[in-house]
Amino acid sequence: MLVITNELERFRSDTDALARRDSRFLRAAVRGPVVQPEHLEAALGLILALTGMSMSEEGRRTLKVVELGVDSGATGGSPSIGIDDGSARANLLRALVASGFSAFDRSDRWLDHVTDDAVADRWAQVRDNLRRDLAFIEACGVDPDVYTQIQRASLYFSSRLTSDTTSDGARALLDAHLLVASAVDLQVDSAQVRLLARMDNPVLIQVALGVESTGLLGVLETIDRLRNPGRVIVSLQPAGSDAASLSELVNGVAAVRPGTTWVGNPAVELGTPGGGAVDGAAVRVRTEALSELVDAAGSHLAGFDIEVHADRIGEAAVVLAALGYDR
């Protein structure tokens, strides 16, 4: 098992702080037919962009989760990392992190040729802040490599629970701190839900339009009947222009579980190759609508859960123009 006990305990402590509004949540997942080193750079670029600053002061208050995944619908050749081989993916992730592929001063290369002025300006600010902080650290006599090593150590990893995962496949999930599942794949009496109820890992459940609050509540109460802060995070995934369509679900869940931790994915289209176009304006509108929706239910939007398919990494820059509105 790659995730040792003290790491998991630290992660649970951080998700508890998230529930208390003491930190923000940022998850960046990049998926494709195969796992490539540049996917980690892209994921870290998203983390930097979502943080809106360097990884110093704001980074200390941000729970950062990274995932590299194999697209289960990939065709045309065998993936280099097996779809169900969580150990192999986690080993590769950690090897890339330790090797320097994740150096934060290089994770902006995938945005060097952005043509959107607003995105380019925002990224330039993020990059300048990072370089300024690294220069200051070096001037203080601290090796910047030590600093980036410390920041890499603060990264957590997530793994997706597939619809055919049973208790026999639990070992592959132990490599991750955070377990990710889609609400449509979870039924109260299913093996997947019983498995999640027995594991200590925090769980992120992604909810799209069409999921009813009663069904989701049954799953949440089964996984987390003690309602431990930060044990379950709900990710709202609106499509189209009407995020208010999720109001029944948010209000229904909040009425029974007022301490629910909410995050959002306002650019859900980027998660699949044919997911449709999305621009910065739409992402801004969705983000503000989700924040207002969750605020009205007596809670707050704790952060972002962004998934990008490898074929669409170049489009992911749209999130930069949208997700700093509250900063």
UniProtKB/TrEMBL annotation:
Signal peptide coordinates: none
Catalytic activity: D-erythrose 4-phosphate + phosphoenolpyruvate + H2O = 7-phospho-2-dehydro-3-deoxy-D-arabino-heptonate + phosphate
Transmembrane segments: none
Pathway(s) it belongs to: Metabolic intermediate biosynthesis; chorismate biosynthesis; chorismate from D-erythrose 4-phosphate and phosphoenolpyruvate: step 1/7
EC identifiers of the protein: 2.5.1.54
Keyword Ribonucleoprotein (UniProt): no
Name under which the protein is recorded: Phospho-2-dehydro-3-deoxyheptonate aldolase
Domain of life the protein comes from: Bacteria
Binding site for Mn(2+): 307
One Pfam family from the record: DAHP_synth_2
GO biological process, any: amino acid biosynthetic process
Keywords: Amino-acid biosynthesis, Aromatic amino acid biosynthesis, Cadmium, Cobalt, Manganese, Transferase
InterPro entries: Aldolase_TIM, DAHP_synth_2
Cofactor: Mn(2+); Co(2+); Cd(2+)
Family affiliation: Belongs to the class-II DAHP synthase family.
Cofactor stoichiometry and binding remark: Binds 1 divalent cation per subunit. The enzyme is active with manganese, cobalt or cadmium ions.
One of the record's GO molecular function terms: 3-deoxy-7-phosphoheptulonate synthase activity
